[in-house]
Amino acid sequence: MKARNPATSDGMRSEYHFDYSKAVRGKYYRRLLKEGTNVIVLEPDVAKAFRSSAAVNEALRSLLRVSEATRRLTSRSSGRVAGARR
Fold it and tell me: In this predicted model, which residue has the larger pLDDT, 86 or 50?
């Protein structure tokens, strides 16, 4: 039989204890801001439709172009509400 690592009083094994005195708060924070890293999690059914992150970006850019074109077509120069008569 293998010898087991006994759990300490807090229930964690010794290999899981971390020396927080050597930790650096926000070590990668500035790099993440500089690189503009952003993580988005897609639902499984949506993820099936795209083979890569490039495909997702392409689809979203296309949607943005369509919505911008549509916004220009539907915006009104006057402040009147559509269908309102005086």
Answer: 50
Q: Does residue 66 lie in a domain region? A: yes
Full residue range of the structural domain in which residue 59 is found = 41-75
Sequence-distant (6+) residues with CB within 8 A of 17 are 8
The Cα–Cα gap between 26 and 32 comes to: 10
pLDDT exceeds 70 at position 2: no
50 part of a folded domain: yes
Tens digit of each residue's pLDDT (9 = 90 or more) over 10-68: 777 888 878 888 888 888 888 888 888 778 889 999 999 999 989 999 999 999 999 98
